[in-house]
Specification:
The complex is a heterodimer of chains A (113) and B (217). Chain A has 113 residues and is an alpha+beta fold. Chain A has a domain at 3-68 and 102-112: hypothetical protein PF0899 fold (2-Layer Sandwich). Chain A has helices at 3-20, 41-52, and strands at 26-34, 61-67, 70-73, 79-81, 97-101, 105-112. Chain A has a three-stranded mixed sheet, with helices on one face. The radius of gyration of chain A is 17 Å and the shape is elongated. Chain B has one domain: P-loop containing nucleotide triphosphate hydrolases (Rossmann fold, 3-Layer(aba) Sandwich). Chain B is globular. The termini of chain B are far apart. The longest helix of chain B is centred in the first third of the chain and has 16 residues, at 11-26. In chain B, strand 3 (59-65), helix 3 (70-77) and strand 4 (82-86) form a beta-alpha-beta unit. Chain B has 217 residues and is an alpha/beta fold. A seven-stranded parallel sheet of chain B has the order 4-3-5-2-6-7-8, with helices on both faces. Chain B is built from eight helices and eight strands, in the order E-H-E-H-E-H-E-H-E-E-H-H-E-H-E-H. Classes of the chains: A alpha+beta (113), B alpha/beta (217). Chains A and B meet through helix 1 and strand 6 of A and strand 1, helix 6 and helix 7 of B. Strand 6 (105-112) of chain A pairs antiparallel with strand 1 of chain B, so a sheet runs across the interface.
């Protein structure tokens, strides 16, 4: 949820990084959206388009990768994909799970000129 | 050219939450973020908890609602300080909003601060405010399927209070199933079964809270 305010925060970071790199045009930005983050990629894409329209960033592409929820079992050491948000080891039924990925909401890379 | 960034988009709110946390730690305040659907019993739980623990610790409450100061007024009736935030439309509290209330409290006179979030099973789970931990309430009238439907909130919480157990004879709800489903999403969850109406189960919750206070000191 809150894809509009997240699109705003995303653009704040983009503008900051563009300034740092003396860039004037944004071609694309790659964002990692974790499965557990409750962000809907289509909504974020839509909000990004609305917010860049009519600005110098218009036309920039927002690329998103959904990062699956994965965990490591502290009991048996196995790494696995967490299905249906069930934090249980499929190998040993252990429940001491360290979340390795799936909670991100980050900018990874920008393509600029 | 490609520029590698790797920045958390919510870094701005996280930073404010950390600054809030630093203030709380300096004042040796235990802080929890209380979340649930509207009507599950957040304010009732706080009213009962404040009264039960008044000889042991001083509590303060930051109330969050879209409109109305009714919840802050209810808390104030118990004698505890309460400040109401009206978000006007925002469906959750964030670090910035709660920071704006700090000047209205005397943190030196408090041991425990509770942020009673806006009633909502979705959004509050995503936004840190600087709390030590999150507590959520699910009432027996809401259904056993909620942990599977709203996994983030159950996953982020340290405690789940299953409230309104006095209504169990009148609803099709298995507390055992709520436990099972919640523990699947968060095996570390501490679960209490309570009724704010009859008082059942509240002693165990209050004892647990006293334990957390001792551990923080």
């Amino acid at each position: 949820m809150h894809e509009m305010s997240i699109a705003q925060s995303l653009l704040d970071v983009v503008k900051e990084e563009m300034e740092k790199n003396n860039a004037t045009t944004l071609k694309s930005v790659l964002v990692h959206v974790g499965q557990l983050s409750a962000i809907v990629p289509e909504s974020l894409s839509f909000c990004f388009e609305i917010m860049t329209s009519g600005t110098e960033l218009e036309g920039a592409k927002l690329n998103m990768e959904v990062i699956p929820l994965t965990g490591n079992c502290r009991g048996c050491g196995q790494t696995f994909e967490i299905k249906d948000y069930a934090f249980e080891c499929p190998f040993c039924d252990g429940t001491d799970i360290e979340t390795l990925s799936g909670q991100e909401l980050s900018i990874v890379e920008m393509e600029v000129d | 050219m490609k520029v590698s960034v790797v920045k958390n988009i919510l870094a701005a709110n996280d930073r404010i939450a950390q600054e809030n946390r630093a203030i709380f730690d300096e004042k040796n305040l235990l802080v929890f973020n209380l979340m649930s659907s509207p009507g599950a019993g957040k304010t009732s739980l706080l009213e009962k908890t404040i009264v039960a623990l008044k000889d042991h610790l001083n509590m303060g409450v930051i109330e969050g609602d879209i409109q109305s100061s009714q919840d802050a007024e209810r808390i104030a009736e118990t004698g505890a300080p309460a400040v109401q935030i009206n978000t006007g439309g925002a469906c959750h509290l964030d670090g910035n909003m709660i920071r704006d209330t700090f000047h209205e409290f005397d943190f030196d006179a408090l041991d425990l601060l509770v942020v009673e979030n806006v009633g909502n099973l979705v959004c509050p789970a995503e936004f840190k405010v600087g709390e030590d931990f999150k507590v959520m309430i699910l009432s027996v009238t809401e259904g056993e399927d909620k942990p599977a439907k709203y996994p983030l909130m159950f996953h982020e919480s340290k405690v789940l209070l299953i409230n309104k157990i006095d209504l169990l004879p009148y609803v099709d709800c298995s507390v055992e199933r709520i436990r099972e489903e919640s523990l699947k999403v968060n095996p570390d969850l501490t679960i209490f079964e309570i009724s704010c109406k009859t008082g059942e189960g509240l002693d165990a919750w209050c004892d647990w809270l006293k334990g957390e206070m001792k551990a923080k000191a």
